[in-house]
Amino acid sequence: MNENIIAIDGPAGSGKSTIAREIANEIHFRYLDTGAYYRAVTLFLLEIQKTSGNPVFSEWIKIQDVLSLLGKIKIKCEFSESDENLIFLNGRNISREIRTPEVTEEIKYIASIREIRNFVNTELRNIGFSHRLIMDGRDIGTEVFPDARFKFFVTASIDARAKRRYEELIQKGFSVQLEQIRKDMENRDKSDIERLVAPLKKAPDAILIDTSGVSKDVVKQMILSELRK
Ligand code: CDP
């Protein structure tokens, strides 16, 4: 049983990252956003594809030697005071670039490649050796740390999640439409749930939390009371 890892999995917009960050602060764990790793790999590959002459990312990625490309990637996560994760790709701070709609759209082709998942999992487990972490993602409790002492599966209705994500992006200064966000989210849910490798699913021993219509503080208290048990 791994006492140093708390796994919080669930779909986009369920509120898990904000809650995970705040709880980490309270219990003196670090917060790690594992989606940022998939975003960083996607950004790296998109940048290479753009110089390749093939304009279609999903076509281009199929004919790549993924393992040799992964050998050129160094991802580093720095923990800031407020437990924001600063993500560096080969020394460059890409924390903002990885949030663009383009990266979000193309990530599904990346997250379904076994070699890429193995690469990210190794990075995540290495950080897990030296820190006490709350990790949020899709497969932390099922694949990355199936031995985590605490596992939560945080979800909410599609309407609640789309609204949450819309407000988050507007606040970050991105220009987005609610309807578009909702549609993109539905597509991403579908590819996360249906992919053959490490699909999004609740671990049998994870605690299910539905955050639709529930305030962030109430969800936080629910999780904290489980942790105190
Ligand atoms: O922030 P948001 O919930 O939109 O997504 P994210 O956590 O940044 O993750 C982006 C995408 O990366 C997800 O839709 C998954 O396809 C993939 N991902 C994954 O496959 N496994 C993880 N542990 C984390 C993210």
Describe the protein in words.
The protein has 229 residues and is an alpha/beta fold. It has a single domain (2-228), classed as Rossmann fold, CATH 3.40.50. It has helices at 16-27, 35-50, 57-62, 66-70, 101-111, 114-130, 140-144, 158-171, 178-194, 216-228, and strands spanning 2-9, 30-33, 75-79, 85-89, 92-93, 133-137, 148-155, 207-210. The strands form two sheets. Strands 2-6-1-7-8 form a five-stranded parallel beta sheet. It has a three-stranded antiparallel beta sheet with strand order 3-4-5, covered by helices on one side. The protein is globular, with a radius of gyration of 17 Å. The structure holds cytidine-5'-diphosphate (CDP). Residues 12, 34-35, 38-39, 107-108, 111, 137-140, 188, 192 line the site of cytidine-5'-diphosphate.
- The overall average pLDDT, rounded, is 95
Tell me the domain tally: 1
Radius of gyration: 17 Å
Distance linking N and C termini: 16 Å
Q: How does the major sheet shape up?
A: 5 strands, parallel
Give a count of the beta strands, DSSP E runs of length 2 or more.
8
CATH fold-level label: Rossmann fold
Contiguous runs where pLDDT drops below 50 for at least 5 residues: none
Bound molecules: cytidine-5'-diphosphate
Q: Per the principal axes of the C-alpha atoms, what is the gross shape?
A: globular
Instruction: Determine the strand fraction and express it as a percent band.
Output: 15-25%
Give a quick rundown of the structure.
The protein is an alpha/beta fold. It has ten helices and eight strands. The model has no long low-confidence stretch (mean pLDDT 95).
